[in-house]
Amino acid sequence: MQYETGTMSEQGDTPADAPLPRARDMVAAFGTLTVLPLPRPHPGSEAFGRAALFFPLIGLLVGALLVGARWMAAGLPSWWAAVVVVGVWEGLTGAPLLRAFGLSGPGAFTVLGLIVVAKTACTAAAGARPAALLFAPLLARWALVVLATGVRDAAAPGRKFNPAITFREFALSSVFSFAAVFAVAEAFGMLIVVAVAALTLTLRLSVHRWVGGVSWRFLLACVEGIEMFVLAICALL
Questions:
Q1: Which of 21, 25, 164, 205 is deepest in the core (most CB within 10 A)?
Q2: How far is 43 from 229, CA to CA, in rounded Å?
Q3: pLDDT tens digit sequence for 62-77
Q4: DSSP string, 121-132
C-alpha cells in the first residue's frame, strides 16, 4: 500500500482548533475510495480524518454514475444490465480494497471475481430501481465514517484508529447522508437508513467485543458488505 505520509501532528490527537476540510480533502477522499490516481492520506492521519467528511459525497456521486450506467443498459436483460453496472461499480471503487489487502495478479482477480458475482446477483435482484443503486454506495460510505468514529485501532487497541475522525465528521456526514436519502425516498428511505444503522451498530459492538478495534481492511470489507446488504433490502421491499 502506498499512502502520502503525514506529519507527526497528523498521527496524534486532533487539536481543538483543527482546520476545516478543504477542497484538497475532497480530492483525497476521491483518491482514498476510488481508482483515481489522486493523493491517498494514511488512514491514521489527520488529513484522512478531514477527508472522511466527504466519504458519503463520494458514495452519492458513485451512485449517480451507477444509475446512469443502468439507464444506458436498460435495453439489456436484467442480468446483463447488472453485469454492466457492477463492472462500472467495481472498476471505479474496487481498487482500494485490493490495495488494502495487498492483492495483485491471480489473487486480485479471484477476490474481485467473487465480489462481482455476489454484487451482480444482488443488483439483478434489486432490478432497475434507481434508489438501490444510489443508496448502496452512499450509505456504505456513511457507515464507514460511523465505524471509524472514536473506535480503537485493531493493531494497537490502546489508541484510536484515527483521532481526527470525531463527532463533527460523524454528525455532518450523517446529516448529509440522511438528507440525500430522504430527499429521494421518504418512507422507503427511512426503512433503508434504519436497517443500515442497525447493521452498523452491530458491527461496531462486535469488533470491540471480539476483535478489539478496526483496521482499514475491515472498514473496506464492510463497505462491500453493506452495499450488498442495501441492494438485498431494496430487492425485498
A1: 164
A2: 25
A3: 999 999 999 999 889 9
A4: HHHHHHTT-HHH
Containing H/E element for 159? strand 156-160
Q: Which of these, 149, 130, 145, lies nearest to 176 by C-alpha position?
A: 145
- Cα distances (Å, whole numbers) of residue 190 to 28, 59, 183, 185, 187: 30, 18, 11, 8, 5
Nearest to 66 by CA among 23, 126, 146, 147: 126
Q: What is the pLDDT of residues 139-152, one digit of tens each?
A: 999 999 999 999 99
pLDDT interval class at 96 (50, 70, 90): confident
- Determine the Cα–Cα distance for residues 155 and 213; give it in Å rounded to an integer: 8
* Distance (Å) of CA 132 to CA 75, 147, 224: 19, 22, 14
Whether the predicted pLDDT of 39 surpasses 80: yes
Over residues 202-233, the pLDDT tens digits come to: 999 888 778 788 999 999 999 999 999 999 99
Distance from C-alpha of 28 to C-alpha of 4, rounded to nearest angstrom = 10
**Residues of 69-95 as b/e, b for ≥16 C-beta within 10 angstroms?**
bbeebeeeeeeebbbbbbebbbebbbb
Burial track 122-133 (b if 16+ CB lie within 10 A, e otherwise)? bbbebebbbbbb
Considering the entire predicted model, what is its pTM? 0.88
Q: What phi and psi values does residue 21 have, to the nearest 5 degrees?
A: -60, 150
> Which amino acid type is present at position 72?
M
What is the DSSP track for 170-199? Answer: HHHHHHHHHHHHHHH-SHHHHHHHHHHHHH
